[in-house]
TrEMBL record:
Transmembrane is among the record's keywords: yes
Record's keyword terms, sorted: Electron transport, Membrane, Transmembrane, Transmembrane helix, Transport
Organism field: Mustela putorius furo (European domestic ferret)
Transmembrane helix listed as a keyword: yes
Protein's name in the database: Ferric-chelate reductase 1
């Protein structure tokens, strides 16, 4: 019997895929659920101050910071592997650049978040939600496009 399981690609590409997968399928998903679910339904339990902010917000912020950090680390790995830009990777690197830009933009937007009852708060909320949702959708598209790349060297 012949073993056909797993990728035969180099470590840097495996690490790139694994870090992006963890960031965009795990930490960002749990972070969004924390902000949406726990903040809405368990506000009385999770609103206790923890380092000056509500506990749910601290969890959300930590998970989103982890997502941004993993994305930035993973973003560099294909450039190290290829020694620059790959013109043979189709749309995957373009989408990856957009996702990375949006991932870095999110904490910058959050740093300028208006106070709770400020009239601009609603505009911030919609902008923050829109940029985050766009990043998640584009990240999933990039992952699907990345699965077909020859550098991944998956069995046929």
């Amino acid at each position: 019997p012949k073993s056909v399981g797993g990728s035969h690609s180099l470590f840097l590409l495996k690490a790139h895929g694994a870090l992006m997968f963890v960031a965009w399928m795990t930490t960002v998903s749990i972070g969004v659920l924390t902000a949406r679910f726990f903040a809405r339904f368990f506000k009385s339990v999770w609103s206790k101050a923890f380092f000056g902010q509500a506990a749910w917000f601290q969890v959300h912020r930590a998970l989103m910071f982890t997502t941004t950090t993993l994305t930035c680390i993973a973003f560099v790995l294909p450039f190290v592997y290829r020694g620059g830009w790959s013109s043979y990777a189709g749309y995957h690197p373009y989408l990856g650049c957009i996702v990375t830009i949006l991932a870095v933009l999110q904490p910058l937007l959050a740093a300028f978040r208006p106070p709770l009852h400020d009239p601009r708060r609603q505009m911030f909320n919609w902008t923050h939600w829109s940029v985050g949702t766009a990043a998640r959708i584009i990240a999933v598209a990039a992952m699907f496009l990345g699965m077909d790349l020859p550098g991944l060297d998956l069995p046929g």
